[in-house]
Design a protein that fits this description.
Order of helices and strands: HEEEEEEE
Shape: elongated
Largest sheet: 7 strands, mixed
Strand content: 25-35%
Number of helices: 1
Helix content: 10-25%
CATH topology of the largest domain: Immunoglobulin-like
Structural class: alpha+beta
Number of domains: 2
Strand order of the largest sheet: 4-3-6-7-1-2-5
CATH class of the largest domain: Mainly Beta
Distance between the termini: 62 Å
Amino acid sequence: MPERTSMHAARTVIALLAAAALCQACSRVPTALVGGPVGPYDRPYPATIQPAEQLDVQVARDGPVITLTNTTAHSFGPSTLWINRRYSRPLGGLDIGQTVTLPLKQFRDEYGDPFRGGGFFATEQPDRVVMAELETVADSQTVIYGLVVVGGQN
């Protein structure tokens, strides 16, 4: 009988350790509040940078995703895409004529909170996309370009 009790206790300990490890893995959020700086997701909107001109890059919302189409004559290298001057997401680049589709849930604010993009299983009202900007480097300076938002509602 003591063998069964110790076997049951060992299984219980293993199950508790596995549950604790699972909870720890699920709580990892890309933010400075948990584990230190991780890059573009852990900073506020750079309000000290004066916005440059507005580009003819259209940002269209279709439910929980946005689509960018670069109709300018310029390519952009690694950049940060800002929504509503609060939520950001790194962008590897945007070539001439390129179209990129991004899930809104990938955008985070400085505290790691995601953009509420909506969708079938959404429990809260989705946020509206009212402004989109591209932060990038041009002529050795960081600049922010305004983008054209079309269909900003869900």
